[in-house]
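FIELD: query
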Amino acid sequence: MTRIVLNTPLAGWACPLAEVPDPVFAERMMGDGLAIEPTEGVVRAPCDALVVGVAPTSHSVTLRIADAVEVLIHVGIDTVALAGAGFTAHVAVGDRVRADAVLLDFDLDIVAARAPSLITPVIVVSEGATVEVLARDRLVGWGDPLLALTVAATVAVAPPAGDEAIHVLVMPLPHGLHARPAARIVALLKTHAAAAVFEAHGRTADACSMVAVMALGVRQGDELTVRATGTDAAAAVEALVALIEGGMGEAHTAPGLAPALSRPAGTLIPGIRAAPGFAVGTVMHLTQSTIAVPEAGAGPAIERAALDAALATLGGRLAAMTGLGSEIAAAHAALLDDPGLSVPASRAIAAGSSAGAAWRSATQAATTALQATGDPHLAERVADLADLEHQLLALLYPDAAATAPAALPDDAVVIAADVLPSQFIALDHQRLAGIATAGGGPTSHVAILAAAAGLPMLVAGGTALLEVAEGQAVILDADGGWLDPSPDAATLAAAGDRIASDRRRRPAELAAAQAECRMADGTRIEVFANLSSIDETARAVEFGAEGCGLLRTEFLFLGRDAAPDEDEQAAAYAAIATTLGDRPLIVRTLDIGGDKPVAYLPFVPEDNPALGNRGVRFSLARPDLLDIQLRAILRGVPGDQCRIMVPMVVAPAELAAVSAALDRALVAVRRRHRPQLGVMVETPSAAVLAGALARDADFLSIGSNDLTQYALAADRGNPATAALIDALNPAVLRLIALAADGAAAHRRWLGVCGGIASDPAAAAILIGLGVTELSCAAGAIPAVKARVRTLRLADCRALAVRALACSTAAEVRALAPPLVEEAA
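FIELD: result
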């Protein structure tokens, strides 16, 4: 056995993997480890190591340590979609590095603006090592001990003998075989008796090795050969091809965006969020007049010299730019040297054009070519070309250039047809509150600059934006995707209050979080935490959790070679119960299958695993695992603290079968007290049959994530449909209302443990429907408690009635703020 200590590779806040907003990392499908919310953009080697993998986009690096264990450092979530923007690698595959050597660096502002999250998993991706966490829930710096790895000696296993199968496909995934698809491929192959390899670019990679799969560098459009040998070879190849060609949820969407599918009603002007935030301010229109240029030149030599001088001056300005916009300036500088612009301009000058006319014709020809691709991301580079055209023409013809814009008023909301990067940089950001454009796109360079500056920006608002009067007071809600062009005094006052309260809210919420949660009228509402590990429990208690409303027991089963035995499970449940003190602990029985396969359990490949053998169905098919888990829960969690919840129930017979198993477990451990046994309502069937389920269950708890995806027929793991997922959709609320009616008919309490419970804006509606317990992500507890304390039950019930009469989630969300103001 060898023990290896890994130091912290980048400065930031160390937190559990369960907090990573990507199930592949959070559920340890890639392996065990920790995550870091970075405060600086430099990644260093955690110890002496060999570099065995560097992503082509430089967002991740894989190290082999002591020739025995491989560790992946993956900066951010979905950062592969940035195509390298903001990242620089300082090492290559095959390099041997010393501890603290710089592996890569990244621009925090650029990456934060374009990726869903900066959180950086540090994961042991090879087998045969146990992981001990040395730092958690605190700030860490370079060199601080982070993880300790205990590595056992490995025994070589011969590849399975048998048949061979082969298939050739063209890679459909928009970002190729990066970390997430590699992890799913490896997990799938663990369920087959076959050895598989991938072949591409004249190289071969072991398909059971994440590092090898990523290092192959397969990109969209590349030809990939899938080859397997063994008794299960044909099935393995078929399953691999189906997984890859099925897309794995890798639909090509812009990272970090939240496109609004539901548009606000009334006089509000809808748009698309380009940079998050909320602002109140005074409209100032930003325009840019066209610079008039002569068509004919004074001679090729004169015009060529003039163009060269202007190019040199502009290039110097761009090179000298620092701080905000410096990387975008570098991109613009590269465009200046692009032969796609310089060659056509030179030809036009030789044919008699002026330098200005030649430059304009070259940039406009390039613009037409980009727009013709139909690629919205390339089309957004049109603004960069327009910016370069204008800047160069202003140097060539300074007398014809537009004058500088007037000074911004305080808290200005700039409205324009579009905003060029150079215009944005020239604005006084101290006076700028936000930006709204009629055109533009959410991945434009100005959008990146706005997000980096912390300024809300709305794009694609249409010509209605351009009609808003100069000097008009407006409200810009980029997160909600709208601009209010004519708010009344009361609405403006409420918006101002929101901005002020946002600045002081968090400290006050944290200070009050430990107190019991009661509504303004005294009604008791329990606010619990969703937990996925022992490590999370103490943090949840710190944030004011009054219990655990959902313990996801899968954390004990994932990332290992065999199921945990009864003693190990009992010890884990006991540790969590002890940390909670006397607070209730609701333990969910094993919920695997679907998007959470376990390699050592025999799952037959399914066309639609979300509708297949998962949750309680699997538990009843494996009564040996269920019996062990129930006995472990009863041994580990004492007395009234213990509650048990059954996932994915669709019929009373399933609950009855688990109840019978619980009775057997009680006898086996010689425990007389029967804990509460509840049902997780996450299928429409469970909601419709809630009355029948509540007759035998002790409580019901809404699993809003799955309930929403099943009700709306929208896969919550698929980026193409993720924007449809909103548990405040009236269809979902009506199912929750059915569950509430069923629970009330038998005097059972109703909770919510899905993601909607963590949304403070949803609390009033859920309580109005009959919910008395909200189980949240730990970090959301202070805000949820604060919101609940402002509410009155009678108001919540009236609000719920109005919400059920709505037709869209956007209409429902629009109802909540007035109630909060009235109740406060």
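FIELD: remark
The mean pLDDT is 82.
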